[in-house]
Specification:
There is one protein chain. The protein is mainly alpha-helical. The chain has a single domain, classed as Orthogonal Bundle (Cytochrome Bc1 Complex, Chain F), CATH 1.10.1090.10. The chain has 4 helices and no strands. Helix 2 crosses helix 4. The N and C termini lie far apart (about 55 Å).
Length: about 110
């Protein structure tokens, strides 16, 4: 029983640290989600091409709004900040697929 309790407390502490770090990063105060901040290398660019149009347009809106806020040295009102619990990785499934395909292609080309 004590082990479970300790694990639960440890999990809550880790989650608390993650939330703290998420807010410290600050992109959520501009209305961005984590996947909006991934550096756009070739794999990411290919994954972006595979996004459904509505998801791609939502991403563009968030990025344009964040750039506008940054230019004006402002942040969104606190009630509009993206919360840690609401930040879902929308690009990750596409990116994992692109990377898997690229690695397969590279492996095939070695032969």
């Amino acid at each position: 029983w004590l082990g479970r309790s300790r694990a639960a407390a440890s999990g809550r502490l880790l989650d608390g640290v993650r939330k703290w770090y998420y807010n410290l990063a600050g992109f959520n105060k501009l209305g961005l989600v984590r996947d909006d901040t991934i550096y756009e290398d070739a794999d990411v660019k290919e994954a972006l091409k595979r996004l459904p149009e509505d998801m791609y347009n939502e991403r563009l809106f968030r990025i344009k709004r964040a750039l506008d806020l940054t230019m004006r040295q402002q942040i969104l009102p606190k009630e509009q900040w993206v919360k840690y619990e609401e930040d879902k990785p929308y690009l990750q499934p596409y990116l994992k697929e692109v990377i898997r395909e690229r690695l397969e292609r590279e492996e095939w080309e070695k032969k």
